[in-house]
UniProtKB/TrEMBL annotation:
Shikimate binds at residues 18-20, 70, 95, 110, 228, 256. Pfam families: Shikimate_dh_N (PF08501). Residues 10-97 form the Shikimate dehydrogenase substrate binding N-terminal domain. It comes from Pseudomonas agronomica. Pathway: Metabolic intermediate biosynthesis; chorismate biosynthesis; chorismate from D-erythrose 4-phosphate and phosphoenolpyruvate: step 4/7. One of its GO terms (molecular function) is shikimate 3-dehydrogenase (NADP+) activity. Involved in the biosynthesis of the chorismate, which leads to the biosynthesis of aromatic amino acids. Catalyzes the reversible NADPH linked reduction of 3-dehydroshikimate (DHSA) to yield shikimate (SA). The lineage of its organism: Bacteria, Pseudomonadati, Pseudomonadota, Gammaproteobacteria, Pseudomonadales. Its EC number is 1.1.1.25. It catalyses: shikimate + NADP(+) = 3-dehydroshikimate + NADPH + H(+). NADP(+) binds at residues 134-138, 226, 249. This is Shikimate dehydrogenase (NADP(+)). The active site is at 74 (proton acceptor). Keywords: Amino-acid biosynthesis, Aromatic amino acid biosynthesis, NADP, Oxidoreductase. Homodimer.
Length: 283
């Protein structure tokens, strides 16, 4: 029995179906810790991201160990933090906040989580040109991971073109000119691409649909998804029907939690056990 106690929470909108609390608490049990993980759902509380300062202060006062941060707060949280890890600072998005000694320290475990899934599921794919849908907080982390993984040219599409342009600029400063661009013609970009990555919430149970028209998919394309509820989104179902290689959002969900668990508790969890637990929740 360890004497470690952890009180953690997830702040985001529409998170009732999140697997994250169960992942953390079950691993905490297995490690002999007292580990509580609470959902702080902005939708259920009828709040928006303007409530973040209050929620952070409340968490500190109640001696929370740390917080995970999800849509739509991964960028809005940054001005409220004292420090950022080099990764969070480079990405410009935070999904994990450690509350320690009166300080709020922001980390990003999405980047590592996506990279781990990519290695496991699509490690050997062609990656000269890749199309990414979405340039939000998760999109920023995934884009960094893709360029670290050797994607030659990343075309980023977002409903807000300025957001895609800002992310492409940030990536080009980090990785060298010409590695990323804001996409303008989706049909052409898709025709030239080796792979497609969805980082938008489109495809979630509460936001059904596809981030790209189905007629732009073809069998030679690989398709990766970060949505994991449901594990088989409409995008993945259509891609698999064409014979595409695919990667669902499950591995990223698990491995971002693996790293967050370690940041909160100071103990490295058993990643295989957490993966097995996640899979058991989805069958």
């Amino acid at each position: 029995m360890s004497n470690i106690t952890v009180l953690a929470g997830l702040i985001g909108a529409g998170i009732q179906a999140s697997r994250t609390p169960a992942l953390h608490e079950r691993e905490g049990d297995a490690q002999g810790m007292r580990y509580l993980y609470r959902l702080i759902d902005l939708d259920a509380l009828k709040l928006d991201s303007s409530a973040l300062p209050d929620l952070l202060l409340a968490a500190e006062r109640m001696d929370f160990t740390g917080l995970n941060i999800t849509f739509p707060c991964k960028q809005a949280i940054i001005p409220l933090l004292d420090e950022l890890s080099p990764e969070a600072s480079g990405i410009g998005a935070v999904n994990t906040v450690v509350l320690k000694d009166g300080k709020r320290i922001g980390h990003n475990t999405d980047c590592l989580g996506f990279a781990e899934g990519f290695h496991r599921g699509l490690g050997d794919v062609a990656r000269k040109r890749v199309v990414q849908m979405g340039a939000g907080g998760a999109g920023a982390a995934v884009a960094h991971a893709l360029l670290v993984e050797g994607v030659g040219m990343l075309s980023i599409f977002d409903v807000e073109v300025s957001r895609a342009e800002a992310l492409a600029d940030n990536l080009n400063q980090h990785f060298g000119a010409g590695r990323a661009r804001a996409g303008h013609d989706l049909a052409i970009a898709m025709a030239e691409a080796d792979g497609l990555v969805n980082t938008t919430p489109m495809g979630m149970a509460k936001l059904p649909g596809m981030p790209v028209p189905v007629e732009l998919l073809r069998s030679a394309l690989w398709v990766a998804e970060i949505v994991y509820f449901p594990l088989e989104t409409e995008l993945l179902r259509n891609a698999r029907a064409l014979g595409c290689r695919t990667l669902d959002g499950g591995t990223m969900a698990v491995f971002q939690a693996v790293k967050a668990f370690e940041l909160f508790s100071g103990v490295a969890p058993d990643a295989q056990r957490m993966l097995a637990h996640f899979q058991s929740m989805n069958h």
